[in-house]
Amino acid sequence: IDIPDLIVDLMHKCWDTEPQNRISAEELCSTLLQWHFNNFKVFPKSNITKKVMKDKNISTLLARRACEKNPFAIYTSRLLNFNDLPEPKDSIKTYDSSIIESGGIIKWISYYNLSNRKYLAKGGFGTIEKAVLVDESGINVNVALKILYKSRNITEEFWNE
């Protein structure tokens, strides 16, 4: 399937693992409407655009549906707390024990154990934040966080940054 990079980027913004990095429903709707009203000029050579433009009825249908509001829907973006979700199979927790055994100081911690997160700097691989961690004994510890942009292919450069 030929999916334009613009759409892929938008999907990644919607699916970001950090809730505060996700775009709001309003931003998503605004982006989609902007693309719609630009008559798909954003990605004119895409197969998807060609298929959509063949059916003239879909344009008016999309415009009508985009403006309708469901009276029972909640349109406010908010953090939903799902404490009972299983860990992903490729969870960073699997790396925790090997790092500790090698004498490193990197440790996986739950997002919910952090408070007072504050942006510090931006690097080549992600952003740096400081936060307060409430550890298992209830003691507050100041920590540095590295929020990664793309963590699938971590290189030696990343660890040295």
TrEMBL record:
Q: What is the lineage of its organism?
A: Eukaryota, Fungi, Fungi incertae sedis, Mucoromycota, Glomeromycotina
Supply the source organism for this entry: Acaulospora morrowiae
**InterPro entries, alphabetically?**
Kinase-like_dom_sf (IPR011009)
Q: What is this protein called?
A: 8778_t:CDS:1
| Highest taxon of source | Eukaryota
